[in-house]
Structures are given as C-alpha cells and as structure tokens.
Amino acid sequence: MRKSLKMFFGVFALLLVTICVMLFRTLSVSKPTETRSVADQVLIVVDKNLVAQNLAKAVQFKTVTAQNREDTDWQVFLDFQAWLLETYPDFYKAVQSQQIETYAQFHVWQGSDPSLAPIVFLAHQDVVPALEADTGWDFPPFGGVIADGFINGRGTIDDKGSLIGLLEAADRLVASGFKPKRTLMFGFGHDEEVSGSGAKAIAELLKSQGISPYAVIDEGGVITTGMPDVKGPVARIGVAEKGYLTLVLTARAQGGHSSVPPNYTAIGALAKAIAAIEANPFESGLDKVSIAMLKATASEQEFMGRLAIANLWLFKPLVEKKMREIPTGRAMLGTTIAPTIIKAGFKENALPRDAVAHVNFRLHSRDTVASVTEHVRRVINDKDIEISLSGNIGAEASPISQIGSGPYLWLEDVVNQAYPGTIIAPNTVLGGTDSRYFALVTNDIYRFAPYVLDASDFSRFHGLNERMSIENFAKTVQVYHLMLKTAGE
Is 444 among the residues known to form the active site? Predict the structure, then answer.
C-alpha cells in the first residue's frame, strides 16, 4: 500500500511538473520583438495613379509563353522591352545591360565597393495564357483596365507586379542621385512559366564569372491576410522551394478488338500504376522551415494552438494531423503526387496498344529526383510500364536559406519599417520560381514580393480576374525602393 502511494505521488508530481512546464512554455509565447539593423527610413512619395497606369500598360503586352517555344510570339517581348526602355530611362542609363538567350535581360548597377557581394533581384516578363473567350472574366485579361480601385489583368500579381515595381523603384532611386556601395543586379527572365531557361543562363553566367551573391530575391512569398492559420498580416518569406518532377508512365499491351480483351490491357495497367502511386505516399512531417513558421506565428493562435506549438515535443503528431486537413498545410509536409494528363485510345471498341500518363511531383527537401523515381518504380512493380522524365527536366528541392541571420535580418528590417506590427515568418514555396537555378551560386535565396494579398486573391494566380489594388501597388513600389536603397547602402 505504502509503495503504491509512493508510486502514485511520484507519477502525480511528474505530471504536475510536466503541466507546469507546458503552461510556462505556452505563456512565454509572444510576438517577436521588432529589431533594426539599419537606420529608420522614410518611404518615398509615389503617385499611385501614375504607377498604376504603367502596370496596366505592361499587362497589355501579351507576353504569353507557350509550352512549345515555336508557338510563342517573341516579337511582343521585344516590343515590351522597348517600352520598358522608354518608360524607365534613368534605370537603363545607370545599368550595364545584356540580352540573355535573346529575350531575357540582365542588368548590373555597379556598386562602389567591390568587396561587397552583390544582391540579385529577379522578376519574369512572361505570363500564363488567358483566353478572353472564357466566361468569368470581369475585364479582358490583357486589357489592363483600371476600375474599382484595381489594376486588372494577367500578370498584375504574377509577375509583372514585381517587374514593374522594381523598375519604378530603381528608376526613382537613380534619378535621386543615389550611388550604391553594393552592386545591385536585376535578372528579368522570359520563360519562367515554362522552363526558366533565361534565369538558368543568368545563374550560369554568374557562376562562370565566379560571382556568389549575398542574396537572391524573387517572387514566391507575400504578405498575407485572412489566412486559415493566421488572420492578421504575415510576411511569409520563402526560404526554401520544393523541387519539381513530372514522370511519364507508358503502359504497353497487345491491343486488338474490345470483344476479346486480354488479361493485361494498357489502360488497366496504367490505372493500377497510378492507384499504386497514390496508395503509397511519401514520408510526411514537420521540418526545420515549417517548425520555424509555426513558432513565428504561434502568438496569433488561440490558447490550444499556442499550447501545441510551444510543446511540439508532445503535440507534434497532433499539429501535423491538423496541418494535413488543409491542402497547403499538407503540401508543406511532404512530396505531393498529382496525376495531371492521361492519353489513351482512339475508338470505343478498340484496345489501345499504349496508354500514357503524366504524374507531377513537388519534392520535399527530404526527397530527390532519383529517390522519387525509384519509389515510383518500386510501388508500380510492373516491368511493362516505362517510366521517363517529362522533357528530361527535373529540379531538386532548394537548399534552405538562413533564418534569423544574414540577409533574412535585412528583409525583416524592411518589413518592420514598411509594415509595422506585421508578423514575419519563414515559408516553403510550394510552386516553382526562377530562383531555383541560383542555388548554383548561393544558398541565400529569398522568395518574397512586398504585396499584401488576402486569402481570396490566391485563386487569381493563373486563374480568372487576376488583379492588384492601386493602393497595394503604390505601397509595393515604396517598399521595393526601401529594399534597393538599404541593399545598396
């Protein structure tokens, strides 16, 4: 009896201590303190209507890239670039410019201190297609219509907002007489939406010249509001990017008349293969970036959320389960599987001799192109199904950039000055950007454009009614100006 009581009180004491520790850790969660690595800066005054008109004009250049290069109207890219030269003369006079792969642009604003590694700013000229005949467009997608407080059209967010925002800011900075100490570089790719060969060529040029940038800044993260995890504003800085892989599965069979089908058919084998891939998902779970993101946003959670995040040593499985209930959360935790194209058959009573499927994977950093391909081969377990890379293109997941040190602190400082009170959190970018090629020259790649986007805006990416608010774009120009000025000081 005495032994049992002693054991009971021991367990009770341990439980009490555990509860006290969890409560202490939970109550210790607070919003990060704002810091300053450079002196406070005053945002420049911007004529919001003028910059809105310039973004609207940029939208009107139909710089759409097609999957087949020969189907792209490349002349419109040259017309667009001629307009940029005319519209931002001070910028183009200050930089040394190169045309890369004919249509990509690389500009160097030489700094006075060669000991400082340059910062590279990226944006892309091309946009995805938008059919004006599609129902649901409030305004013509390439009309560049300004109405109801918005600039409307394809590319306003992805990615002419960044491109024009950078040029508006840089042109003003040059005109003010600013001379950078640190060299600033600008890479404007021409085919990000299909392959990114322009950005790749720029990265390879830097590599050949022995240049290792201090940081690369590209699209990817933004300032969000109204999101499922945090309602208030969060600057989501992309410190990592998932890899990209599409595998082509080709099933071959005898074919023939449908009235006497064999046991093994091409379509049946392909269907089984896809089902096997989906039934055997990849490892999924929190990593360095997602844990840092959760901790950065924990102060905005309700008590139970703060409790779980502050005590991941105990509640990690529960947090992961909760994240898997949201598509974006689930995608952050592991490599995703998405069958996207199936081609087979030509007649309803004829068996096809082959059936083809494209399966797209977005690779988590714990997986590689080789390991994913081998996993697919193993779970399909059918020697008659050929597995190949679509277009022989496969991109590994990016390295993870510094969090809480190095260039991250500079971006933190910019956000704190431009958007006081905004939470700053690292993030993994789920889609692909041109910046992935720059892992060739630096690990410090940050995917962040200083837009403010509401949760409802995300369906507009590559979708209907893409738009940017006039007020938002004016602020974007101001923040890019702050970024360029502090980067060059």
Answer: no
